[in-house]
């Protein structure tokens, strides 16, 4: 009798805290979990407790991303080259220099820090992580793996922590942060290491005054590379202690962005500078600090490299640290790297913070969780069922003694101890907007001053917080879309999210057409006729988009502004605009026409004939016409491409997991994980949603059990 009472109580708790209610839902088992896999490869985990969620989620991730996940954990140990060899070529995107990753991971001491972070976990979080890793290992034992992946097993909680450290290191040193440009110089580019993160996102929260039903809405639209460390995995958790629908990066055990009955949030990569390089004055094995010579902390290690025949060859690695942080040599100079969260002011509670963000009872509780400041990076865009909306310039910004954003974006004098920061600003000191009169908040990776209207005043914050520049054109287009619709329905939000209008065309095309027509150049005149008929969008059927995009590339891209005037803080919503050099613009256009004629590509080729949503090869290949463009065209539908072997342009970056949420008595949501919910080419979910993306369509999120049962593909039951 007691067991029945416990089961009934658990079921009631899940209905209160889950992503929906359904009177016909059978109660969960008192111990363990049940995983319902829908036709899109999304696991819906129903569990009696959080530990059972963790176990089931570990098994689910291993089923859908085994080779990728294990390889990333091997790299987090600083032993990727030991298991896989010096270079890994089997990924979807670029070859990875495993040896360089190992050197970087060891130099940053992530293996040691991973042990410390593991020891720092609270008892409940450690129990959850133990269960997650147990699920990973038990699933790995039950499925086919490559010999390399098998050699990495068993996995440990320290691997999860090391991967978390490495993930944040990539954000903090390689994102759009103002200081990332100098920090990323210490290691090779993404093509070699998979670490130099290219990141972005669109995030909106609409308050009751901006929606048709008077309920808040959320647009969660991350942009990352389509593979490797940046792969998203979509899932639903339903348990009394942890209930959320959303997605996380493969290898992380908790949901990073998501929603439930009460609220939802998305992160956007921000311009926060949490990383600085200090240029050291060096004399052998010592460096100068305040006029005194100080010896480096030093140790010697060996990185093992697996040779083609299987033998292991040790490669020496000398590690140095100064009072600033880890020491690197680059281009004949010596630098020390100081990074918040993963090196200084460490944040071992970041996973638990995400867990508690999901479980916060109301807006105030959510803010209190965020104020722990365990996430050292990211903006947060938030909306809830009570109609609250919030945007905050999150992460950890060091309290610096002097200088503006431009000063700290370059290496600073490491011999001056007065430039070494030792604490960070509180969240309450950072730019943020809650429940504004405009009825909306947003960010698309630009500076924080334009979260809503009226804009924030940068003078109210230290000058190093973020530069005074205009927002990205993608963000300007997003603000236009928000203001063009008086009150949004969910269908309106879907349409806005997929908007492909190229804002740059609105800004420069009239001048380009006039200059081409007046030039008397036959090729430029031909191109002008095509561009004049173009709809200024990057739809798959758009004719002229290919020509315009390639002209922008020939001009050096919209971010290389010798050709486009404006882009300044004084004109934040209308610049850049116009042509700075019409003659150069026409010359580039005519040259492009000549080149397209040479290779036999008609000027009015449909965009989707060349730009493609592709994944896989051979029998597993998925291939559809693409739509959308990158930041260089000012498109809100963000997709970037790379030339494929056949000359087509293959999407490799941009829209990944997307959730559009309408709060209310019944939560409604549209979702898509653009490239599919598995990185395994043999899995049916691999690339399975690219056809939806090609149509600019989304799925209804399955939030209640009856809906999941109606789309059921298979069922798993676990006792743990």
Could you outline the blueprint of secondary structure elements for this entry?
Elements: H1 2-17, E1 33-38, E2 43-47, H2 50-76, H3 80-84, E3 87-88, E4 96-97, H4 98-107, H5 110-119, H6 123-141, H7 147-152, H8 157-174, H9 180-183, H10 190-193, E5 199-206, E6 217-225, E7 232-238, E8 244-249, E9 257-259, E10 263-268, E11 275-279, E12 282-283, E13 286-289, E14 292-295, E15 297-306, E16 312-321, E17 326-330, E18 333-341, E19 344-346, H11 350-359, H12 363-370, E20 379-384, E21 389-392, H13 405-408, E22 412-413, E23 432-434, E24 440-443, H14 473-484, H15 490-497, H16 503-519, H17 522-533, H18 545-554, E25 564-565, E26 577-579, H19 582-599, H20 607-610, E27 611-615, E28 622-625, E29 639-643, E30 649-655, E31 657-662, E32 668-673, H21 690-694, E33 699-700, H22 705-710, E34 712-718
Parallel strand pairs: 2-7, 11-22, 18-19, 27-30
Antiparallel strand pairs: 1-2, 1-34, 3-4, 5-6, 5-24, 6-30, 6-31, 7-8, 8-9, 9-10, 10-20, 11-18, 12-13, 13-14, 15-16, 17-18, 20-21, 21-23, 25-26, 27-28, 29-30, 31-32, 32-33
Pfam families: Penicil_amidase
Family: Belongs to the peptidase S45 family.
Protein name: Penicillin acylase family protein
């Amino acid at each position: 009798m007691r067991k029945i009472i416990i089961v009934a109580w658990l079921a009631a708790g899940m209905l209160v805290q889950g992503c929906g209610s359904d009177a016909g839902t059978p109660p969960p088992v008192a111990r363990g979990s049940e995983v319902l896999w829908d036709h899109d490869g999304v696991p819906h985990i129903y569990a009696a407790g959080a530990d059972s969620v963790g176990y089931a989620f570990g098994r689910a991730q291993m089923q859908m991303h085994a080779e990728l996940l294990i390889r990333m954990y091997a790299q987090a140990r600083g032993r990727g080259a030991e298991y896989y060899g010096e270079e890994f070529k089997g990924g979807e995107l670029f070859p990875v220099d495993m040896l360089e990753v190992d050197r970087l991971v060891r130099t940053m001491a992530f293996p040691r820090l991973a042990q410390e972070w593991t020891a720092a976990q609270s008892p409940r979080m450690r129990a959850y992580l133990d269960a997650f890793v147990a699920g990973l290992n038990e699933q790995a034992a039950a499925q086919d793996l490559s010999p390399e992946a098998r050699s990495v097993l068993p996995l440990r909680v320290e691997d999860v922590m090391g991967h978390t450290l490495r993930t944040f290191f990539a954000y903090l040193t390689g994102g759009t942060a103002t200081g990332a440009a100098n920090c990323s110089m210490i290691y090779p580019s993404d093509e070699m290491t998979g670490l130099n993160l290219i990141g972005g996102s669109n995030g909106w929260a609409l308050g009751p005054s901006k929606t048709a039903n008077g309920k808040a809405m959320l647009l969660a639209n991350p942009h990352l590379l389509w593979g490797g460390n940046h792969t998203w995995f979509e899932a639903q958790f339903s348990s009394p202690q942890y209930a959320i629908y959303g997605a996380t990066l493969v290898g992380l055990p908790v949901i990073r962005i998501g929603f439930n009955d009460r609220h939802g949030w998305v992160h956007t990569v921000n311009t926060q500078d949490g990383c600085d390089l200090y240029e050291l004055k060096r004399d052998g094995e010592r460096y100068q600090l305040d006029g005194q010579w100080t010896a480096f902390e030093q140790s010697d290690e060996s990185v093992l490299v697996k040779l083609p025949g299987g033998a292991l060859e040790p490669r020496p690695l000398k590690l140095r640290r100064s009072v600033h942080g880890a020491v690197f040599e680059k281009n004949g100079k010596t630098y020390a790297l100081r990074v918040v969260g993963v090196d200084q002011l460490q944040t071992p509670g970041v996973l638990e913070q995400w867990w508690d963000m999901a479980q916060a009872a109301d807006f105030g509780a959510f803010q209190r969780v965020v104020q722990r400041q365990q996430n050292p990076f990211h903006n947060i865009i938030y909306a809830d069922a009570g109609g609250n909306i919030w945007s905050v310039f999150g992460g950890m910004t060091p309290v610096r003694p002097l200088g503006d954003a431009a000063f700290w974006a370059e290496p600073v004098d490491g011999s001056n101890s007065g430039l070494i920061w030792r604490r960070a600003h509180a969240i309450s000191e950072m730019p943020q907007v809650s429940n504004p009169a405009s009825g909306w908040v947003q960010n698309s990776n630009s500076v924080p001053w334009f979260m809503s209207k009226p804009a924030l005043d940068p003078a109210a914050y230290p000058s190093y917080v973020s530069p005074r520049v205009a927002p990205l054109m993608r963000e300007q287009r997003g603000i236009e879309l928000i203001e063009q619709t008086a009150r949004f329905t969910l269908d309106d939000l879907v349409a806005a999210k997929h908007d492909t209008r190229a804002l740059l065309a609105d800004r420069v095309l009239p001048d380009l057409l006039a200059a081409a027509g007046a030039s008397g150049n036959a090729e430029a005149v031909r191109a002008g006729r095509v561009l004049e008929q173009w709809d200024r969008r990057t739809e798959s059927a758009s004719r002229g988009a290919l020509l315009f995009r390639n002209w922008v590339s020939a001009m050096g891209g919209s971010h290389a502004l010798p050709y486009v005037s404006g882009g300044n803080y004084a004109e934040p919503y209308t610049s850049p605009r116009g042509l700075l050099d019409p003659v150069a613009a026409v010359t580039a256009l005519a040259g492009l026409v000549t080149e397209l004629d040479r290779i036999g590509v008609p000027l009015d080729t449909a965009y989707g004939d060349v730009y493609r949503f592709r994944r896989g090869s051979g029998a597993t290949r998925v291939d559809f016409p693409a739509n959308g463009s990158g930041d260089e065209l000012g498109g809100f539908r963000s997709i970037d491409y790379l030339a494929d072997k056949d000359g087509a342009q293959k999407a490799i970056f941009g829209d990944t997991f997307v959730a559009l949420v309408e709060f209310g008595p019944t939560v409604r949501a549209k979702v898509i994980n653009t490239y599919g919910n598995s990185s395994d080419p043999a899995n049916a979910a691999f690339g399975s949603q690219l056809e939806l993306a090609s149509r600019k369509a989304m799925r209804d999120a399955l939030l209640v059990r009856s809906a999941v049962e109606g789309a059921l593909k298979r069922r798993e039951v676990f006792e743990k």
